[in-house]
Amino acid sequence: MRFWPFDKQTCNIEFMHADFKADKVQLHHLMFDESNYVPNSEWTLEDISATTLTILNFSVIIYSFKLKRESSFNVLTLILPITFFGISSVVVFLLPAESGEKVGFSVTLMLTMTTFLT
């Protein structure tokens, strides 16, 4: 969560045949056919890799997926409105008390922001 919503993730999936040792069964990886990949609105697939290892005399395949989060949705629906409301609440206190329209001004700003979000 340190770099959210501009983060990148690496997901590893390990396959191992636990019943037989590597001298009996040797696993081999097949690379993914990227033509079957369905794009996602939240994540972008940057890279796929696969390695075959022998760990503790067992054959292991490790698939590694590198994903990048699409941040535009989170920026437009969370970060910008929160920043705008925070700044507008400070600006309301800068208005002179004689104007008498602090609450009306604040409500107008919030209604304007919600109109842009919908």
TrEMBL record:
Residue ranges of every copy of the Neurotransmitter-gated ion-channel transmembrane domain listed in the record:
78-118
Ranges in a coiled coil: none
Q: Where does the protein principally reside?
A: membrane
Residue ranges annotated as transmembrane are 72-95
Protein's cellular compartments = Membrane
Question: One MF term from GO for this chain?
Answer: transmembrane signaling receptor activity
State the annotated membrane topology for this chain: Multi-pass membrane protein
Record keywords: Membrane, Transmembrane, Transmembrane helix
Which InterPro entries does the protein's record reference?
Neur_chan_lig-bd, Neur_chan_lig-bd_sf, Neur_channel, Neuro-gated_channel_TM_sf, Neuro_actylchol_rec, Neurotrans-gated_channel_TM
The Neurotransmitter-gated ion-channel ligand-binding domain covers 2-70
Provide GO CC annotations from the record.
membrane
- Give the protein's recorded name: Neurotransmitter-gated ion-channel ligand-binding domain-containing protein
Name the species this protein comes from.
Dreissena polymorpha (Zebra mussel)
